[in-house]
Give the backbone structure.
Amino acid sequence: MSKDTVQNGVVVSMDYKLTVDGEVLDSSDDAGPLQFLAGHDNIVPGLEREMIGMKIGDSKDVVVSPEDGYGEFDEEGFMDVPRSEFPSDMQIEEGVELNITDEDGENQFARVESITNESVRLDLNHPLAGAELHFNVTVVALREPTAEELDHGHVHEEGHNH
Ligand code: ZN
């Protein structure tokens, strides 16, 4: 099967720029093209869907709604954790971002919303929950995944293997 367009099961390298509310939040200018394995939830669904069929060199502006991006902001997405559950040498301040492990052993993002003497309120919403995402993407390269990449469902880049 020829892999000359973005389709499920193809490793895509793309240059990208992500703008939210007129502010550039992330771009490949810093770290170089981003690689992802199409069809494996590596990138937000609303962007991947719009990229299917693009060829090398194609550019596109894609607007992704929250529901096709990082989700709607969840007013229930907060958790109160007793202060005693945090290591005593851990610096806890409002606005600090943490990686916590949920009951399924998955890493999850959390931001300290507020602190009382007894407990810490964590905001579990993704930082971009509720945001409309404006992407500008250019397909730089397409290739077949290795068997291992296909098995893992993600791309193995130098220095990022796991
Ligand atoms: Zn892997």
About this structure: The beta strands are 11-20, 23-27, 34-37, 59-64, 78-82, 97-101, 107-115, 119-123, 133-143. The mean pLDDT is 92.
